[in-house]
Amino acid sequence: VARAEAAAKAYGAEGAAAARRRRHAGGAPEAAVLAAFQEIRMKFLAEHSDAILESLRQVFPGPIRLKAAPLSAAVQRRFVSACCGSAPVAVRPVLHGTDARNHSSIFAKGLLAPGADRAVRLRNGNSHGHGIYTSGLDAAWLSHGFCTEPRMLVCGVLDDAAPLPQQRLLGRHYLTAESRSVRHVGSAVVVLDPSRVAPLLEAIGPEMPVAVTAAEPSTAAQQPIVAAQQAAQQQVRRFAPSTAAAFLARRAAARRRPRG
After folding, report:
1. Positive or negative torsion for Cα 32, 37, 40, 43
2. What global pTM score does this model have?
3. Torsion on CA atoms 63, 68, 69, 70, rounded to nearest 10
4. Per residue in 18-27, pLDDT tens?
């Protein structure tokens, strides 16, 4: 992201220091921010598209479309600012599955940790920390489990988590890498700082197949089965004594009959 970072910091010909002052004041030129974000996205796609598609094929059989996530200018600005404000770090591809009805809100506001916005409620637990839960490309099944339609967000994370010298248990999984902003727990990548993650692409797979149920047997086909069941029940009623006492009484009477 070197070129993108340089473009974002420059904000035209003003120089990095002036750009930072204007950015903090909310006055950075929007065109430069959007250009920097587009540069980040194109580089991300060029580097990771093959791996992303390979991962998505594990959960979306059939053709898959990748399209640019239509993010608001505010969300793009937030991610570009995070790129500028941190030490150089790779943008890691991760996946985020959610109810498809949430996509439009995510495009407008960005990914937010539950509680950061009153409209974002805790739905699936936060046993690994209060953050945004994503999965690595090697665990597309994890994010797919939260999708309600064949649509998934492909996100970029400014991942500065460092491997731990000794893994430790966090919830039911092991924490393997950590920073102040990102945690790797099991197959999940938990982003604690929302500014360091952005949905760059939306993956769209084929429509989920409709479950096919076996046809109910016709009445005519059921008749022999019903007749056999009724005959069996009559046989049971004919030979099975209604009570133990009745059975013993009949057996005693039979013994008392004279044998001829």
Report:
1. negative
2. 0.67
3. -130
4. 344 344 434 5
